[in-house]
Design brief:
Mean pLDDT: 85
Shape: flat
Number of domains: 5
Distance between the termini: 52 Å
Largest sheet: 9 strands, mixed
Helix content: 40-55%
Length: about 850
């Protein structure tokens, strides 16, 4: 067959690799695409060599390859073609060897042609790396999902992950382990590889997450610090992976992936994968890896819940107090070991029996009527009761009975009883009468007495004080979801938090059901109460962690003040309850005041707090970009400004930034913003737009211990140049701890991140510090820019700032430029860059991208 137009079209293809071989497989022609598939930039490096030199060792026998793919068979095919035999061959699982000795999966079509008057073979090659990557990842996801369904415990899950990914899916090696917090090393729990030699080498590999060490800069470190999947697509070409280069080279490993397995938003384990094919974990299929991550993280949570339920069951069965559970008709469906021991009944005798089997027949009809009425109305019943054992013995108990609801309907009653010892009856009765048995706090009766004493003292000394009634919202749902004992533990934790917040002379009590009462003494002004109670609400509303489970609870608080609201005990408590009801009508996490003038001030602030917490949870803080320009009005960079996307509107930071900065919420908000900015920078890079973006970080964010490692990991994760990111800091930040800020700036500058001082010139100490800080930019404050046209002194001051900055090799950016005259004056003063409404207003991402185009 002679060369034709068909071959002429193919030889320059950018999709298919093409080569022609003659005797002994010698390559006499190849196109550019074939060289690229094998990782060569120069075709001459391949021309004249035998194709047999580029055949992967996968063909040397074994490995499950078909006989058609063996080296001997390939040699035979070469011989037949060069002798003129015409026959087509299409293979879908060929493997070639790249310049870096990596295995490259390809599909080939081969035929016999005449080339330069000699019988030759022509081969069309299609790179299947992405296809094979997808197939393996999809198969891995399928296998792991099946594993999650059938496995019963964490250890089996972690071990079988490695077996599946190596033995079934076909990855070269796999390890799963955790980070030791002391040594910062990756400790392997289970390790698997396709050869014993590799498995031993991987087991002995030193991998860490301390980025100040050579072994702490790899994919495991990136996954740990960024809490995201880290993919290294060709490790032999990455400088930051040089510590393990000998290992990767010896075992021909080219792709690395680390998957953080999360529990309670923390990295619990890391799944570390290696493969011999470059791009085996292709970034286009990151979503499959994320599905694997989510599945494994879900499984860990499930195992933890199962473990907790088993422990809870054991605690109930062997507890010192009796526990009885009945159905809605008071027929017994469960009795713990202590109930059997005390009553002398067997489990068979109790199950199915009516709870009146314990009746002592000593209670009045009125007592029984009140008992059933309270429970059927859904309220908790607490009282002293006499129970009769099987032998007829009468025992005294203090009991709590809790109705359990599903879909608003009572389905069960949970009874827990405490036996009163005859020796200590008086002492125990005193404690029971005045102490809540769950929290060990004063109960409602004791609280009334304490309010009476407080009120008399406050009235005689004319001091301001308050009574607060605190109500956890829908606490019964916690009983239903997590069980009676766990709910009681949460009540104890609420009481402990209240002790830690308030002064020792304030009073904390456990009132009826799930309510708490406070007496807050000796206020200077009525407004001070708002500050105290807001702190109480903030602390109580934080999640509660019990046996590694996180429980979120909302609260309402009702307040009444003395002397203005009431002058008697009952009035003061009643008005606090009225205020509580008012708070409930306003929603969750609300404070109600008996007097509306104080309530209005509280409502606005607490609503903002709740909205901001939801905004952080739902990732509603987004960047708006305001470009800055050079003297020719060309965009040379931009500042990312925080905005709150609330419903269908964009909220200005003036409405929320001060409150964010008063709390730790600012850290979460700025972390969200930073992640969004880096994503946008990566998208700009794909469009060949290379401009720096600056972010503003608060003092709280700057003082995070792992800030440097976190930023480094995020930059590596998005594969961005560090100089694409700038950090803006206001002067007051480095006044508080200059040594710390200087060190932080130096660390991040070594990484490549630039710094800018915002609002420069607004503090008297600016010039003293400037020469010692390694900053790249100064932003001239808007207050100077606005007066530069009308105030000669201001103009001279700005000129001095620019001159000083340039003498220290620092660029200047004038912010708030709104008039053409301001722009012209600043240009004459040799200001470098300009930002303001004269050029661009802050704009959303898509509008910013259009401006760059």
């Amino acid at each position: 067959m002679h060369l034709s137009g068909f071959f002429d079209a193919l030889k320059d293809s950018s999709v298919f690799g093409v080569f022609v071989f003659q005797e002994e497989g010698k390559i006499v022609f190849l196109n550019k695409r074939f060289a690229e598939i094998l990782g060569y930039s120069d075709k001459d490096e391949i021309l004249g060599k035998s194709i047999l030199e580029f055949i992967s060792p996968k063909y040397s026998g074994g490995g499950g390859m078909s006989e058609l793919n063996s080296l001997e068979n390939i040699k035979n095919i070469i011989k037949r073609r060069t002798q003129g035999e015409v026959f087509p061959i299409e293979l879908k699982t060929h493997w070639f060897l790249s310049k870096t000795k990596a295995d490259i999966p390809v599909s080939v079509f081969a035929y016999t042609i005449e080339y330069n008057k000699k019988s030759s073979g022509i081969v069309l090659v299609s790179d299947r790396t992405k296809e094979v990557s997808y197939q393996k990842l999809f198969f891995a996801l399928s296998q792991i999902n099946q594993l999650i369904v059938r496995i019963e415990n964490k250890e089996d899950l972690l071990r079988e992950i490695c077996d599946i990914l190596v033995d079934k899916v076909g990855y070269t090696s796999c390890a799963v382990g955790y980070i030791d917090e002391t040594s910062k090393l990756f400790i392997q729990k289970y390790t698997r590889a396709n050869t014993k030699e590799l498995q031993k080498a991987l087991k002995n590999l030193t991998i860490g997450v301390d980025t100040s060490t050579p072994h702490g800069a790899g994919s495991a470190s990136q996954a740990y610090h960024a809490k995201k999947i880290s993919i290294i697509e060709d490790v032999l070409q990455k400088a930051h992976m040089s510590y393990w280069q000998d290992y990767y080279s010896y075992f021909n490993i080219h792709s690395v992936c680390s998957i953080p397995i999360m529990q309670n938003n923390q990295v619990k384990y890391i799944l570390y994968l290696n493969d011999t094919t470059p791009n085996s974990f292709h970034s286009d299929y990151l979503h499959l890896l994320e599905e694997i991550q989510l599945g494994l993280s879900f499984a860990l949570d499930r195992f933890e819940k199962q473990k907790f339920l088993q422990m809870t069951q054991l605690a109930i069965d062997s507890g010192f107090e009796f526990v009885i559970i009945t159905d809605e008709n008071f027929n017994i469906i469960y009795a713990n070991d202590k109930a059997l021991s005390i009553s002398d009944y067997t489990k068979e005798e109790l199950l199915g029996a009516h709870h009146s089997i314990f009746s002592s027949k000593t209670h009045t009809k009125e007592f029984a009527k009140n008992f059933y009425k309270t429970l059927k109305n859904g309220a908790v019943y607490s009282n002293f009761m006499k129970f009769q054992t099987k032998s007829g013995k009468i025992l005294d108990f203090y009991v709590n009975i809790v109705p359990f609801k599903q879909d608003g309907k009572i389905t069960n009653y949970i009874s827990i009883g405490k036996l009163i010892d005859e020796k200590n009856t008086i002492e125990q009765l005193e404690k029971i009468l005045y102490t809540d048995p769950v929290t060990n706090l004063p109960n409602y009766r004791s609280f009334q007495s304490m309010v009476d004493r407080f009120l008399k003292r406050a009235l005689s000394k004319n001091t301001i004080g308050a009574v607060a009634v605190i109500n956890p919202i829908s606490f019964s749902s916690i009983n239903q979801a997590f069980g009676f004992e766990k709910a009681n533990e949460v009540l104890r934790m609420i009481g402990e938090r209240l002790r830690n917040i308030l002064y020792s002379y304030d009073v904390i009590a456990k009132l009826e059901s799930d309510r708490f009462g406070l007496i807050i003494k000796d206020l200077k002004t009525e407004e001070d109460l708002l500050v105290i109670v807001s702190q109480v609400l903030s602390e109580l509303s934080k999640p509660y962690t019990l046996f590694n489970q996180s429980i979120s609870i909302s609260f309402n608080i009702g307040l009444s003040l003395t002397p203005k609201d009431a002058a008697t005990v009952n009035e003061l408590i009643d008005k606090a309850n009225i205020a509580l009801q008012d708070a409930k009508e306003n929603g969750e996490n609300q404070i109600g005041f008996f007097r509306k003038d104080i309530e209005e001030k509280a409502f606005k602030k607490l609503k903002l707090k709740a909205d901001l917490e939801r905004a952080i949870l739902n990732k509603k803080f987004i960047p708006f970009y305001q470009p800055y320009v050079d003297k020719n009005k060309q965009i040379v960079g931009a500042e990312a400004l925080m905005r709150w996307k609330k419903d269908n509107t964009i909220v200005s930071p003036a409405e929320f930034i001060n409150y964010l900065e008063e709390t730790n919420l600012i850290i979460d908000a700025e972390n969200q913003l930073t992640d969004s900015v880096l994503k946008d920078l990566k998208e700009l890079e794909k469009h060949h737009k290379d401009i720096p973006i600056s972010i503003n970080l608060s003092a709280l964010s700057l003082n995070q211990k792992d800030l440097v490692q976190s930023l480094s990991s995020l930059l590596n994760y998005y594969n961005l140049k560090p100089n694409s990111l700038k950090i803006e800091i206001v002067e007051r930040v480095f006044f508080k701890d200059f040594a710390y800020m200087k060190n932080l700036i130096e660390e991040l500058r070594e990484l490549g991140v630039h710094f800018s001082i915002d609002d420069f010139g607004t503090h008297y100490s600016s010039l003293n510090y400037l020469s010692e800080l390694d900053v790249s930019f100064l932003k001239i404050d808007i207050s100077f820019v606005r007066k530069i046209q009308t105030d000669p002194k201001t103009k001279n001051l700005v000129a001095a700032i620019i001159y000083l900055a340039h003498s220290l090799n620092i660029k200047t950016i004038a912010e708030g430029v709104e008039a053409k005259e301001q722009f012209e004056i600043l240009k004459t003063l040799d200001c470098d860059y300009f930002q303001g409404y004269l050029f661009y207003k802050p704009m959303p991402k898509l509008e910013f991208f259009r401006a760059l185009r």
